[in-house]
Amino acid sequence: MHPVHTGPHLPGVALLMGLGALAERPAGPVPTGFVPFVFQGVVMLRKLTRTDNLIQQFDTVLRTLVPHAAQPSRPSPALKARDGDMDDAERRHAEGLMRINHTGEVCAQALYQGQGLTAKLPDTREQMEHAAQEEIDHLAWCDERLKELGGRTSYLNPLFYAASFGLGATAGAVGDRLSLGFVAATEEQVGRHLDAHLKGLPTGDRRSRAVLEQMREDEAHHERWALEAGGTRFPAPVKFGMKLMSKVMTQSVYRI
Description:
Shape: globular
Order of helices and strands: HEEEHHHHHHH
Number of strands: 3
Radius of gyration: 20 Å
CATH architecture of the largest domain: Up-down Bundle
InterPro entries: COQ7_proteobact, Ferritin-like, Ferritin-like_SF, Ubq_synth_Coq7
Mean pLDDT: 74
CATH class of the largest domain: Mainly Alpha
Helix content: 55-70%
Subcellular location: Cell membrane
Low-confidence stretches: 1-27
Organism: Modicisalibacter xianhensis
Family: Belongs to the COQ7 family.
Number of domains: 2
Distance between the termini: 49 Å
Number of helices: 8
Largest sheet: 3 strands, antiparallel
Enzyme class: oxidoreductase
Strand content: 5-15%
CATH topology of the largest domain: Ferritin
C-alpha cells in the first residue's frame, strides 16, 4: 500500500473508498499504473489493481479486433483531403492496401500491449503505452477509410494479433533493450510498407494518402525513440526474417 495524501476535505479517503492506494493528482500527465477520478472537487489518483489491469487488457483487445470500436485521440487526416475519380479496380486495390495497413496496426497494437505487459522499466512501459495510443489512432483511421471505400477489415486479424502479442511479451520478458530493438526493427518494416503503398495508391485516392503520410511520420518517430532509448540494432539476417514474415501477412490480408 502506498502512502495516502489527503487534503483537508479527504480524511481517511483510502479506507472510505476501499480502492487501494490514493494520492492527490500532481500536475502533468497521469503516471503509468494510476487512474484519475474526482472526489469532492479534487482530482485524485488511484493505483490500478491487478483486476483493473486485466480489464484494461481485455478492453484493448476488444477495441483492436472489433470493427469500428477503436476511438482515435486525433482527427483523421483524411478529413482534410478530397478524393479524385477512381474506377472500380482502383477502389478495390486501395481497399486491399488499406486492409493491409489496418492489419499492420492490429499487429502493432498487440506488439506494444505484449511488450508493455512484460517491460522491466517504468519509463519503457510509459513510452510503449504512448506509442500504442498513436497506433490506436492509426487503427481507427484505417478502419474509417476502409468503410468509406466499401471494404472490410481482415478475417485473419485475431490470428495476427495473437502472434504479435506473443512476440511482444517474449521480447519484453527478455529485456528492455531487445524489446526496444524489436520495436525499431518493426517500425522500420512498417515504414517501408507505407512508402510502397504511398507509391501504389491510385492517384485519385487522396484521403488514404493523407492517412498514410501521417502514419509514416508517426512510425518514423517511434523508430527513432526506440533506438534513442537504447534499443538493440538488429542484424540484417534477423530483419530479413521479419521481412519474410511480414510478406506472409501482406499477401494473405490483401484479399482475406
